[in-house]
Design a protein that fits this description.
The chain is globular and about 65 Å long. The protein has 321 residues and is mostly helical. The protein has a single domain, classed as Rhodopsin 7-helix transmembrane proteins (Rhopdopsin 7-helix transmembrane proteins), CATH 1.20.1070. A 3-stranded mixed β-sheet has the order 4-3-5. Strands 1-2 form a two-stranded antiparallel sheet. The termini are far apart.
Amino acid sequence: MEPIAGGNQTQVMEFIFLGFSGISRGHTFLFLAFLAIYLITIIGNTTIVTLIQLDSRLHSPMYFFLSHLSCLDVCYSSVTVPKILANFMSRKFTISYNQCMAQIYFLMTFTATECVLLAAMAYDRYAAICQPLRYSHLMSSQVRVSLATFSWLLGFLNSAFHNALTTNLSFCGSNQIDHIFCDVPPLLKIACSDTYVNEMALHTTSVFIDLIPFLFVVVSYIYILSAILRIRSNTGRRKAFSTCASHFVVVIIYFGMSKLNYNRPSAGYSLEIDILISTLYCIITPMLNPLIYSFRNKEVKNALWKALGLKSKEHNSTKKQ
């Protein structure tokens, strides 16, 4: 820390992460575990984006949004994991003040964008199942580009707002963060200035960024489920449900982890629980998304076989018949 001219406070120049401070052994294992998760995340999401760009059968609104989702997963996983890996290699779990503010800015940008994007994807599924005759109009190229642009814009505005508030905090006591990466809640715990405005900002923006999109998704799926139940054939119901199942699973995981990460009470949680929740939210979820979509989606799997120069099982079974 360095003294600020004309005052008794000190300016924090770097923060120390305490998340792994209690672990004296096993750093190599943790490094390899985080590296494996990161590589799976990058390879899985990059593969989905590439397949969507290359295969004309995937040039639909649903896959347009999926490509944005995969880009987001790559981005906000890359905000946290490389620094964690670097800290494991150096055995020095620190981050500079400017790097910390940058990490918060981009982390909150990508996570907020994903919340709104998942709501846009729910609207796409609603239009496809509940309004099939108007689907091409409701999800025209202009509409889906506008929805994606709005999602990204809202994410950047959200992070700019929180970053402006965070940079005004004073850290005149400890510079030790009970976490493994920079985020707003852990910084509020060690700030020596009044954090009431910051806490209210978190809860208020979570209504617009988190709660409203989640409620929109819930309402959309109520209409979707009602429409599916009206389909008479079992095959039709199964096909309609399969187009929504992957998105619904991702929504439950993502919004559930988001609520626990940003809206849990400050008391009653240990450091280990904080780290577990944040790791699931910001590191594990980006890895799971491509696995959920690729394993449950025949079109994505068929596009992958085609890109690899292989024939899908479905194609081979048809040929045998």
